[in-house]
Amino acid sequence: MQIDVISIFPEYLDPLRHALLGRAIEQGTLQVRVHNLRQWATGVHQAVDSAPCGGGPGMVMKPDVWGPALDDVAQAHGPAAHADVWRSSLPHQRQQRHDQRQGYIPSGYDRPRDCTETEDPSLPLLLVPTPAGIPFTQAQAQTWSTESHIVFACGRYEGIDQRVFSDAQKRYRVREVSIGDYVLIGGEVATLVITEAIVRLIPGVLGNHQSHENDSFSDGLLEGPSFTKPRQWRGLDVPEILFSGNHANIDRWRRDQALLRTMQRRPDLLSTIELSPEDRRCLELGHSPVDDSHQPRG
Ligand code: ADE
């Protein structure tokens, strides 16, 4: 996957070099290029923004700067052709992790491309982070993890002149996306969030392919609690059932914990998934029926 980011604060994107994303870059799974928007600004002041038409507070980013930037990045032309392709700088990331030693076979996602009937599926995807966008979800992260070229346009101030996106539809599939109902100063942090959510789903990036199959939201539920050794810590025990060796019961218990947590923290999600009779029984009881700790002790 190739990711291009256009921003007036390119250093904001430095975290993309680290940890999992850095490793994906080193593996050659991910290519990142970060472009400074000011390369496309003209005039003595290299202004990238201007007062909003019709008045009002703040500044709007100029179409005559964004337009050429998006044209060049789509065609790897002009200043965009000379951008550095990032290499991670952290040598320890080359070490093999424990979950990579188990003979992992990457598998792809069987998801349709994010493309409307009027769009050309071979065009790159242009993601524009904005609080006014459609909500970014795990389902989108999964769909977009199969893209070959994603470009992020990071706006600042009161946003980017809307004509930029009408025009960009000739060269991109354009999506304006929000990472939540709050307002950030610009699109850079949202770009980091969206990139991490997408890249960790590219087959081979996470190491252990199972580790994202149990993610929160991947089955419409929040993920339940996790435990590791020691079995007792500060007077707190790991739930007994996890040592029972009965994997059917353990799977049921985990599903029940996910259901109970979702009911408590995100009840809105429960109405969007299909519940089995076992799921309903757990939610009615308020605990997992396979959990012995809820049986009366005699
Ligand atoms: N830019 C500013 N706020 C944002 C948000 N909530 N999501 C995406 N991009 C943004």
Keywords:
Alpha/beta knot, alpha/beta, five-stranded parallel β-sheet, 298 residues, 9 strands, 2 domains, 27% helix, Trp Operon Repressor, Chain A, two-stranded antiparallel sheet, binds adenine
Give the count of helical stretches.
Answer: 8
- Beta-strand portion reads 5-15%
**Helix coverage percent:** 25-40%
Mean of pLDDT? 90
Task: Could you tell me the CATH topology label of the largest domain.
Answer: Alpha/beta knot
Describe this structure in words.
The protein has two domains: about 1-210, SPOUT methyltransferase, trefoil knot domain (Alpha/beta knot, 3-Layer(aba) Sandwich); about 230-295, Orthogonal Bundle (Trp Operon Repressor, Chain A), CATH 1.10.1270.20. Strand 1, helix 1 (about 20-25) and strand 2 form a beta-alpha-beta unit. The chain has about 300 residues and is α/β, with parallel strands linked by helices. Helices cover about 25% and strands about 15% of the residues. The protein has helices at about 20-25, 65-75, 140-145, 165-170, 190-200, 245-265, 265-270, 275-285, and strands spanning about 1-5, 30-35, 50, 60, 125-135, 150-155, 175-180, 230-235, 235. A five-stranded parallel sheet has the order 2-1-6-5-7. The chain has a two-stranded antiparallel ribbon with strand order 3-4. It is built from eight helices and nine strands. The radius of gyration is 23 Å and the shape is elongated. Helix 3 (about 140-145) crosses helix 5. Bound molecules: adenine (ADE).
Strand-helix topology:
Layout (H helix, E strand, L loop, with lengths): L1 E6 L11 H9 L3 E6 L12 E2 L9 E2 L1 H13 L49 E11 L2 H7 L4 E5 L9 H6 L4 E6 L9 H12 L32 E2 L2 E2 L9 H19 L1 H4 L6 H9 L13
Parallel strand pairs: 1-2, 1-6, 5-6, 5-7
Antiparallel strand pairs: 3-4, 8-9
Helix pairs in contact: 3-5
Bound molecules: adenine.
